[in-house]
């Protein structure tokens, strides 16, 4: 008998990791170029950003558009599937805002 995977496990396979949610969040409104994403997500390394973007593209959450210009220009944006994650992202942002003080206390305790 095959066990069904938990929907949460399936979702975390797509969006889990330190940077993926931050990448999706920053692409929510408009396409962004690689260099701009790297600047926004500092201190992410170029190698890690490339890896995360490739995985998100593979999983159909983002789209990569290459412009045939010199120097080369690449923009990333959310796909329709990626946009469908926005209600979850909005709920996560609301939850985080509602518990900001507690999270800061926990973060401060972790640094001690």
Automatic annotation (TrEMBL):
GO terms for molecular function: DNA binding. Keywords: DNA-binding, Transcription, Transcription regulation. InterPro entries: HTH_HxlR (IPR002577), WH-like_DNA-bd_sf (IPR036388), WH_DNA-bd_sf (IPR036390). The keyword Coiled coil does not apply. Pfam families: HxlR (PF01638). It comes from the Bacteria. Residues 4-104 form the HTH hxlR-type domain. This is Transcriptional regulator. It comes from SAR92 clade bacterium.
């Amino acid at each position: 008998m095959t066990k069904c995977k938990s929907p949460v496990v399936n979702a975390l396979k797509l969006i889990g990791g330190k940077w993926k949610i931050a990448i999706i969040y920053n692409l929510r409104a408009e396409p962004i170029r690689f260099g701009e994403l790297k600047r926004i997500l500092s201190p992410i390394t170029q190698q890690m950003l490339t890896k995360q973007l490739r995985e998100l593209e593979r999983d159909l959450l983002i789209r990569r558009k290459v412009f045939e210009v010199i120097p080369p220009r690449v923009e990333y944006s959310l796909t329709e599937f990626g946009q469908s994650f926005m209600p979850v992202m909005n709920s996560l942002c609301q939850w985080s805002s509602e518990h900001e003080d507690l999270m800061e206390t926990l973060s401060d305790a972790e640094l001690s």
